[in-house]
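Supplementary Text 2. Reproducibility record for the structural model of the 225-residue chain.

All settings were left at their defaults, and a single model was retained for analysis rather than an ensemble. We include the record here because the model underlies the residue-level annotations in Supplementary Table 4.
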Amino acid sequence: MANALDPSWLEVLKDEFGKDYMINLKDFLQQEKAAGQVVYPKNSDIFNAFNTTHFDNVKVVILGQDPYHGAHQAHGLSFSVQKGIAIPRSLINIYKELKTDILGFQPPAHGNLEEWAQQGVLLLNATLTVRAGNAGSHQKKGWEEFTDQVIKTISDKKEGIIFILWGAFAQSKAALIDEKKHFIIKSAHPSPFSAERGFFGSKPFSKTNAILQKEGKQPIDWQIH
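Retained model, structure tokens:
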């Protein structure tokens, strides 16, 4: 597994791969494969968030919970789907908020968020794999221990990172973040079940850019092309 991780992340996370939880997680994933289970995303995309947004380049973290479990949806970036796949409802709501938050934003015809990741937005899911058609099926198998360590490592080793935490699950991770060094933006989750209860109108994207500019960093171009 470590071989699939970008060197900048491996440098700060290498100790995790020898721990019991990671060995058990690797065994679990091999058992899933041996049992003929279809697992998303494909192996080469599991660490896509890290391999697209290198450790040194992280400016913003958007935390999701689980990869999409439909065919060809998940590709290792939270809230993102591959081009040619129907845009999920949560992402449609994200685009709606962007349209009111960022002047001139036009919702794209696809849901691939790689352009954000390339600018330093770490699109991190707490769980990095899922069984096809079975939401949450790889939770509590070890991934959360790994991604909690990712959040804590970013908090410990970097400064001025903006963490965007949507919904109760993501907000529970605030305990891992040193708020004296970093910025946290919280709101309701963009899912259709909660977007009307505090996500719409929360303006996380303009707030993020205002912080980045104040910190002397390049703001994010949120427009997806």
